[in-house]
Amino acid sequence: MASIDGRPQDDVTASGARAGQVASVSSGAPTGQAGAPGARRAPRRGHGGIRGREGIAGWTFVAPMIIILGLFLVIPIGMALWVSFTNWQGNTSPFVVGQGTDVVGLKNYTDLFARDGLTRDNFMQSIGNTFYYVLLVVPLQTVLALGLALLLNNTMLKGRSFFRTAFYFPSVTSSIAIATVFLFLFSNTGAVNAFLGFFGIDGPQWFSDSRGLLHLAFNAVGVDNPDWAQGEIFGRSLWEWLSGPSVAMFVIIFLVIWTTSGTFMLMFIAALQDLPVEIDEAAALDGTTRWQKLRHVTLPMIKPALFLVITLGIIGTWQVFDQIYVMGKGAPAGTTLSPAFLSYQQSFGNFRYGSGAAMAFVVFVIIIVLTRLQRHVLTDKDERKPLFRLGGRK
Q1: Domains (ranges, CATH) in the chain?
Q2: What's the confidence (pLDDT) of residue 24?
Q3: Where would I find the ABC transmembrane type-1 domain in this sequence (predicted)?
């Protein structure tokens, strides 16, 4: 074996390679044999590559929708929020202070809760009406939609397509047209009172009687405006808060449940058809009844769909407008008044846009609170977080 300076040639070669690696590391170059054509280079970190191109493509596709939402949703919400702090009456630009528009701060909001007057009386009455409206519509339409979905999801049922179309048809029909038909059906000489007359029942004056159903129930047992119900809450007595929905509002409740259950039925059907078949088979082998299967198997697995249906129901009921507009505009005696219609009336009827915008944002806060509350209720106990966090994360 040849040697150089008394050392074997292999040792010299190995030591030279190690020296080249050390030199490469110290200089920031990639390790390996110095000068080797096949030496690896460290990948460059930057905005290129597959991930970078995917990010650019993603933003390119969503940019039109972001622009549309910004122009027609985010910016108008910000403008409405600004108007709620002014006394703008629609004559001039709301953003030019001093020329018919003055900044009043929280006055429009405090007038709704703390100042005696017609504005607070109407707004509180609309809140009370909508409270009973939501309390009846959301549970009933959810239960009805789930029941229809369970019925139509049965593979043994014949004509499922026909029934699915029939139940969904009222949801795609014009709400104005349906409300007009209901006005004829529930008029004093309408078909409903005529049908009740066959059984000797004198039907109520549906859109003329302003008494609430709870007041009628209290009067039936001899209770009429007792002393314990005289205390005031936001300018209304407790007896007025406990009036319950009027018969006119009851008609609207019936109409809305009938027209919205079909849409929520389809959501439940989609969730039920997505359930694994193995779970149903396992439940059948365990000998569970239909009620036990529904309570312990089906409902826990369709919680996302249940949350969606209840959330959409809460949003829709607190924003009810078209049925109120067609079926009396709040009559009789304001018992069908809703915050959405009152906000419209205050803005475009009385030209008090600041007060109308304030009503809209109060309803917005109510919807957020109720949505958060029902999400807390539907979450499993071991996964629940504080209902309303105050402070930072721990």
Answers
A1: 108-210+246-380 (1.10.3720.10)
A2: 44
A3: 127-374
